Amino acid sequence: MENLMISTMPIKPYNKINPGLMIAPVICDVIGDILKCKKVLALNLLHSYDDKSVDLDKYLSKIVEFDINYNELIKDINYTDIYLSKIEQLIYMGFIEIKKGIVLRCDCGKVEIEKKSVINNKNGNLYHWENNKMICSCCNRECKEYEQTNLYMKIDSNFVNDISISPLFLKKELCNLLNRFSEREILISKNRQKDYFININNQRFNIDIDMLWMMFNQVEESKNQILIASNHQLYQIFISNYINNIFGEKSIHYIATPYLTNGEHLDLIKKIYSKHSCLYKKLVVLYSLKWKYKTLNWNNGIIELLNKLDDESLGVLYNHLLNINFDEQNSIQNIVNKIFSEINLNNNIKVLKRNK
After folding, report:
1. For the chain, how many structural domains are there in total?
2. pTM (2 decimals)?
3. Does residue 64 belong to any structural domain of this protein?
4. CA–CA distance, 286 with 257 (Å, rounded to integer)
5. Is residue 282 included in any domain, yes or no?
6. What is the CA radius of gyration of the chain?
7. For the segment 69-83, what is each residue's pLDDT rounded down to a tens digit?
8. Would 285 be classed as within a structural domain?
9. Which of 11, 95, 277, 333 is most buried, by CB atoms within 10 Å?
């Protein structure tokens, strides 16, 4: 398809590689082959305060083990100049403003959040509540109020149009995000994060790394993009789509993958990695995903069934998926949804019986 690219949103490498970290790369490889488009594997090193070179090597070796192919490898840390330039453009266009505000911040700096966005006694990813006090879950210190000058990005409802996403049922949650954040301002500069900054009127502002991560869609020049993230990142997808709408240069479809739990169990990991066949590993990932659910378990039945197949049978199944038919005149959203609907082991297994 013309000028189309599919990419993972930048993935952070870890020392311990949970099978879930292979979901986005496998989807990128397979969908890219079906659509015959450029495939990009993007890696997130912006969030790393420590040297991640060893973890990166381990993760890339796992990519090789799965025989995941890509046309380009992107490390987001190499594109910070583009990100910061886009931030400056948003300031010039009036979407980002300098304002004083009250933030809640802990001693270690891991928690730094606008006070207005906090809901009392509702825990967050990095904090929890004790005796009506917000406590950092990292340093276990109370988050205190500070008045400081920051950068805020306004969510203008004129630029939050209908988002193209798979699976479709997630649009409801994205509409809820629109209702929650429309015409509000979000904090995009942080006191602690000092690696990436801009200077405005001789004042330095340290840019929130999450904000930079959400601008990944501005790195690639492809006008038509498919970006893959987890459905736990819907807020980030919402902001990413908003930023793209402001610049108005690209057509983007997002894939928000289901979250597969219980992947940390050693017995399950052994089963998933029990065969050397890369096709087996890819098919375990593809067939374990059920696109009608946000969260589900790795399916032991599917893993056991695929484990019994020889390499020839696995190849027949995989090639069947690569030859899924679609109408190029349809929207990318409809094409992707059709492809996902046809990745069904109960139906695809019939191909093996016809080939016998």
Report:
1. 1
2. 0.92
3. no
4. 11
5. yes
6. 22
7. 999 999 999 999 999
8. yes
9. 11
Q: Quick one: 317 exposed, middle or buried, by C-beta within 10 A (0-12, 13-18, 19+)?
A: buried
226, 39 contact by CB (below 8 A): no
**Residue 248: burial class (beta carbons within 10 Å; 0-12, 13-18, 19+):** exposed
* Nearest partner of 242 among 318, 300, 163, judged by Cα: 163
Q: pLDDT tens-digit profile of 306-334?
A: 988 999 999 999 999 999 999 988 999 99
Of 38, 44, 109, 37, whose CA–CA distance to 75 is shortest?
44
* Domain contains 284: yes
**Would you say 161 and 243 are in contact if contact means Cβ atoms under 8 Å apart?**
no
Rounded to the nearest 5 degrees, what angle is found at the Cα of 277, between the Cα atoms of 326 and 44? Answer: 70
* Domain of 321, in residue numbers: 260-356
What residue has token string 């378990």?
Answer: 297
Locate 309 and state its tokens: 């197949």
Beta strands in the chain (DSSP E): 4-8, 38-43, 72-75, 96-105, 112-114, 127-130, 133-136, 144-154, 164-166, 185-187, 197-200, 203-206, 224-230, 251-257, 259-261, 295-297
Strand partners, 102: 147
What is the 8-class DSSP label of residue 207? B
Do β-strands 4-8 and 38-43 pair in parallel, antiparallel, or remain unpaired? parallel
Q: Which distant-in-sequence residues (6+ apart) come within 8 Å of 351 by Cβ?
A: 316, 317, 320
User: Do 150 and 101 contact (CB within 8 A), yes or no?
Assistant: yes
For the chain, the first-to-last Cα distance in angstroms comes to: 34
Alpha-carbon span 129 to 14, nearest angstrom: 29
Q: Both tokens of residue 350?
A: 């019939």
Q: How many CB atoms lie within 10 A of CB 354?
A: 7
Residue 145 in 3-state DSSP?
strand
